[in-house]
Amino acid sequence: MNQEALTQIRIQMEKKKLNSLIVTNPSNLFYIFEQEVQGIFIISQENLKLITSNFYTYFDFDPKEIYTSKDEAIHLLKNLKLKGKIESDSEINQILKKIFPKVKVTELIENVRTIKTTKELFKIKKACKITEKILEKARNALNDKLTEWELYSLIQMEILKKKCLPSFDPLVQVNSCQPHRLSNSKKITKKDLVILDMGVRYQNYCSDMTRTFCLDPNKKQEKLYNDVLDLNTIATSQVKENASYEKISQNIEKLVKTKGYDLRKNYLHLLGHGVGTEVHEKISQNKKLEKGNVFTIEPGLYVPKIGGVRLEDDLIINKKGRKEVLTNFPKELN
Length: 334
Hints:
By secondary structure, this protein is an alpha+beta fold. The chain contains ten helices and 17 strands.
């Protein structure tokens, strides 16, 4: 169990004068238990209780209550006799609403997750280093004899060789104007813009990194690439403690328009997202970047008949309040 997380959750509960917190969101349960489990986890200042199905009988946690039917689960929940102010980490189902009719939803755990501990930051940094080594292998293998699927398979194999799992399904995209299109059988040629978007999960913590390559680019491809590189560089330069991530995003959107691109047609996703036990998380608990935040800067431009370019880095505001770029693989088109 993540004891540091539990301590911080209880501190925040105390600040909110919260007597009990009901946790059912699978990603929050994973964050607390550091392994997959489903059920209802009750946190109070004095006690912990996990109510879960008999599928998780093996799960090593005490105290826990096992139910084998819906009626049995209801009985166990009623017997808790929770009093005082109660909140939940997600919308509760109809059964829970009957037992706890006044429960409100809170982002308390999501907010705690935005402030990474030194231990968590170490794991994320390690995940980034591993990702850079895998990206180097993929870049060196890139040639005009491969298909997207073949390069995708190479990336997956390299991830497994590093004794990791992917933090998401790797993306190999040739001349793509669909940012999250899955890889297919398309053949790679020397004239293609090739987006490689990948990450690994190291001891439950994720990385997320993107580079774009072209073996023999033309002038239009070079311009598109350099425009995205400018967006990445300028956004990164504006990152600092107490900076507004939203304001940085707005500045980049203005720059996209200044460069002559259409925000709706060519700039198809947000500037970035938080990273942690999930590859997409909340960036910060308020509108300002603070110590322990981990997030991406990933501008992309997508132009029909030219293709797509995306350049993504993972960054942190370290415990000294300084910006660190964790992904330093060279940004070179060819």
